[in-house]
Design goal:
Layout lengths: L4 H7 L12 E3 L2 E7 L7 E7 L2 E2 L19 H17 L3 E5 L5 H14 L9 E4 L1 H12 L6 H6 L11 E3 L12 E5 L7 H10 L6 E2 L9 H6 L1
Parallel strand pairs: 5-8, 5-9, 6-7, 6-8
Antiparallel strand pairs: 1-2, 2-3, 3-4
Length: 226
């Protein structure tokens, strides 16, 4: 084991919180951070040593999509909403396993807008079943100025993250499993939690659908995706 819980606790006193674009200098090395555009709060750093901006010889990055060739965004969104609409029209359930931060908020925005544009779906419930996503939602509802121009412009009339057609789902016990519905749940790999429970409840019935995204390693989501 590289470190234990006590190592983590001892490191907490060494953490200093800084603001975006705030310049700090330590032993002649200046640095500041920018928004990275990955998820809300993600940062990237610029390092300046004696007037020279640091350029790495080796850059190690997260590469989930490094070997993927994506279709245009509008094509992917249409495929996503088409699967959901078609499944619900046949009386089925749609399970959307997703990351709680970033991916969840993006998909909920797409779903809420799609439901608003399709009155025939207004009596069909959408739920997000992720305690972490619910906590993250409060942050997204607060930091509107960190969003893209479309969200900022919409905020003049309403908060885009104050959803009209989507409700939180805290547990299976609180779920009224009657009629078609769409549920976004974590974790994305279906290895445990609400997403796994719903998967086991629904997917013996072929009229239901599971819209999976990235599933790593050996887990239920990866096997289902394959």
């Amino acid at each position: 084991m590289l470190y234990d819980e006590q190592d983590i606790l001892r490191s907490m006193d060494k953490i200093e919180v800084i603001d975006f674009h705030q310049t700090l200098e330590v032993n002649g090395i200046r640095f500041w951070c920018y928004t990275a555009g990955h998820v809300l709060g993600a940062a990237m750093f610029m390092v300046d040593i004696a007037g020279v901006r640091f350029s790495p010889d080796i850059c190690i990055i997260e590469s989930t999509y490094g070997v993927q060739l994506h279709q245009p965004r509008n094509v992917r969104e249409k495929r996503f909403t088409d699967v959901i609409h078609s499944t619900i029209s046949q009386g089925g359930h749609v399970l959307i396993p997703a990351f709680s931060l970033g991916r969840a908020q993006e998909l909920l925005l797409i779903l809420d807008e799609y439901w608003s544009n399709h009155p025939e779906l207004h009596n069909i419930p959408i739920y997000y079943a992720s305690p972490l996503a619910k906590r993250c939602m409060a942050v997204y509802q607060t930091y509107i100025n960190s969003m893209n121009e479309s969200i900022r412009n919409q905020f003049a009339n309403s908060n885009a993250f104050d959803f009209k057609h989507i409700s939180p789902l805290n547990s299976i016990e609180n779920f009224n499993d009657v009629g078609p519905s769409a549920v976004m749940a974590s974790p994305s790999g279906l290895q445990s939690g609400l997403s796994r429970q719903l998967f086991e409840m629904w997917f013996s019935d072929k009229k239901n659908a599971c819209y999976t995204w990235v599933c790593r390693g050996s887990n239920v989501g990866k096997n289902h995706h394959q």
